[in-house]
């Protein structure tokens, strides 16, 4: 399976971001790709919530999603949109951070709403409160593709190993982690956590990321990665936006799981007994 990763510096104009996605779809297809993977917030990255809210649409009306669906169908290419910010359906008015898998006919095959929300105060002085604007998802998702079952996640989900155990227990052999990691957290933890998720689940990990300085002033870490089930890095795109390619030897999954059968050895964890 040949995959392409789009490392983006998404901005505050959805139309420009959509144009970048369409161009990447064409280039990925020309590069012999089976599937293109894009980062979290591919359609809009704007920390000015008042300004950004003017661009938000429902899933049915989102122009970036519709543009990508048409481009995927025209190219005959599968696309994983890491995520888009969309109007939510809940009574509290919060948005959703939703990823999509789109097939080569432009149909939506899977949706996933980010489960874990990034509410932190960093030593750098940065403060993030995703839960103020976004509602969390309610379920984990594995999508069937012609090559392998794909487990979906988004960015901060990476820190919660139980999600990836659930995805691999459900049959996923490729795990996706589209992201917009901050530079401090990325420098400290990005490579380590992604390699750990690959090793402990004996899965390929594909992590398309945002990179660089964005129009809204934030900086993201980049380093879109592809990692094999043994934890070896097959692709590291550094901090420059662009398109990267990797070839996955899917037979590697069975080979690694035979060497260290971690999935077979998993057990339900009993209630922890606190010693007196």
Write a structural description.
The protein is an alpha/beta fold. Helices cover 28% and strands 25% of the residues. It contains seven helices and 16 strands. The protein is globular and about 50 Å long. It starts with a strand and ends in an 11-residue tail after the last helix.
Q: Which properties best describe this structure?
A:
7 helices, 6-stranded mixed sheet, single chain, alpha/beta, 16 strands
The termini sit apart by 54 Å
Tell me what portion of residues adopts beta-strand conformation. 25-35%
What's the gyration radius in Å?
18 Å
SSE order in H/E notation? Answer: EHEHHEEEEEEEHEHEEEEEEHH
* Arithmetic mean pLDDT: 94
What's the total count of β strands?
16
Subunit organisation of the chains: single chain
Percent helix: 25-40%
Largest sheet: 6 strands, mixed
Neighbour order of strands in the largest sheet:
5-4-3-2-1-16
What structural class do you assign from the helix and strand content?
Answer: alpha/beta
Can you tell me the overall shape?
globular
Helix segment count? 7
Uncertain residue ranges: none
Short description:
The protein is 28% helix and 25% strand. Helix 1 (14-30) runs parallel beside helix 3. By secondary structure, the chain is α/β, with parallel strands linked by helices.
């Amino acid at each position: 399976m040949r995959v392409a990763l789009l490392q983006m510096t998404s901005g505050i104009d959805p139309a420009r971001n959509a144009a970048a996605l369409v161009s990447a779809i064409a280039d990925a297809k020309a590069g012999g790709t089976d599937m293109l993977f894009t980062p979290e917030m591919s359609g809009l990255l704007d920390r000015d919530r008042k300004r950004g809210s003017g661009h938000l649409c429902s899933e049915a009306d989102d122009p970036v999603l519709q543009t990508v669906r048409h481009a995927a169908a025209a190219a005959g290419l599968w696309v994983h949109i890491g995520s888009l910010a969309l109007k939510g359906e809940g009574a509290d008015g919060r948005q959703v951070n939703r990823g999509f898998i789109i097939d080569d006919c432009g149909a939506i095959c899977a949706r996933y709403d980010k489960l874990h929300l990034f509410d932190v105060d960093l030593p750098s002085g940065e403060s993030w409160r995703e839960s103020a604007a976004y509602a969390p998802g309610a379920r984990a998702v594995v999508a069937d593709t012609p090559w392998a079952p794909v487990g979906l996640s988004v960015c901060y989900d990476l820190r919660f190993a139980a999600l990836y155990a659930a995805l691999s227990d459900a049959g996923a052999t490729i795990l996706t982690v589209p992201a917009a990691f901050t530079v401090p957290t990325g420098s400290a933890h990005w490579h380590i956590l992604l390699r750990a998720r690959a090793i402990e689940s004996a899965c390929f990990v594909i992590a398309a990321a945002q990179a660089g300085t964005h129009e809204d002033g934030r900086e993201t870490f980049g380093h879109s990665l592809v990692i094999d089930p043994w934890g070896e890095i097959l692709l590291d795109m550094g901090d420059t936006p662009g398109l990267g390619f990797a070839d996955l030897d899917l037979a590697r999954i069975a080979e690694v799981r035979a060497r260290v059968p971690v999935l077979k050895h998993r057990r339900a964890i009993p209630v922890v007994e606190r010693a007196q």
